[in-house]
Amino acid sequence: DLAAAVRKLSSEAPVGQKPALTVEALSKARNLAALIGDDSKLALDPDLNSYYLQNIVVKRVPALLSEMGELHALMHGAVQRSSLPIDQLRARHLLLDGMIRSTVEEIKRDFAAAYRGDADGRLKQASAGDIGSMISAVNSYLETANATITGQRASFPGSYGTAWERVDRAWAVSQAELRRLLDERLFNLLRKLRSSLAINSLVAGLSILFAVITYRQIVRPLGQLEALAGMVRETKNFGLRANLDRQDEIGQLATAFNAMLEELASARERELADQERNTAMQAELARVARLTTMGQMAASIAHEINQPLAGVVNNAN
Question: How far is it, in rounded angstroms, from Cα 272 to Cα 57?
Fold first, then answer.
């Protein structure tokens, strides 16, 4: 759309149509700048300096140029004795004059807000002079336009060209500063990203090293103790020992485990000895019981034999 408007403006159009075509081209340029600003997502910028600066670049200055173009077209018609009634001409002039002054005030406020977020002062140092010259030139242009409307002599085309050049210069400086701020932010983000990657790599390396050390110094010895415990449980061989000659907590655990196995072995030996003694006692008790039973049987047999023998003896006596 902008290219078509510019081609139409560059064509062999009548001189009287040039102001209207200029206004149309400026309107298309304003829409294009707004579209670029929306696509860039800079309106979501959290930093004050670049946020307000992009607002100036993509909204305020294009709006100012468009409004100045409309006023210039209106003043061109007034100089060329437009067919508009003087009352409508003055009303339109007052409206555009107020819009331009309002846009200039918004630019001043946006720059003041951007300076608050400018920690090193480079933005203000680079743009303050051009912004001041632009505001002065625009105010001078408005005064010239007002003098032209009221019938006073004034260099209207010259003041318009000067104001346009100052606005264009301030716009270029604002774009350059915005690009510088965004480049600095990207550089800082990349630096932080590299630092973060370096730190994460270091942490990952330390984690891997710690995992290897943990496996070699803790997990593997504990696995050996677990395997030994399982072997003892399956074979009931309490003579097995953990071969871990270390001075740390794992070594102390292995020593305690070996001491426990020694206690279990001693308890096992005592249990076997008790079992042997119990077996011997049971055998002795069985022998005594047999002897006792035999004595009781002999006494019973003797008693049974003694009674008839006693009768025989008595009868014999």
Answer: 99
* CA distances (Å), origin 124, targets 99, 106, 113, 281, 283: 26, 17, 11, 110, 113
Number of Cα atoms under 13 Å in the Cβ half of residue 283: 5
Closest by Cα among 9, 149, 2, 140 to 74: 149
CA distances from 52 to 61, 107, 122, 287 (A): 12, 9, 15, 114
Alpha carbon distance 116, 308 (integer Å): 142
> And the tokens for 244?
């871990």
Angle formed by the axes of helices 86-116 and 61-79, nearest 10°: 160
Asked if residues 154 and 144 have their Cβ atoms less than 8 Å apart, the reply is: yes
- Report the predicted TM-score, pTM, of the whole model to 2 decimal places: 0.61
Contact 30, 62 (CB under 8 A): yes
What are the tokens at 96? 């555009």
203-255 confidence digits (pLDDT tens): 999 999 988 888 777 777 777 777 878 887 777 777 777 777 777 777 777 77
- For Cα atoms 164, 166, 171, give the angle at the middle one, nearest 5 degrees: 95
Amino acid identity of 255?
Answer: T
CA dist 159 and 68 (Å) reads 12
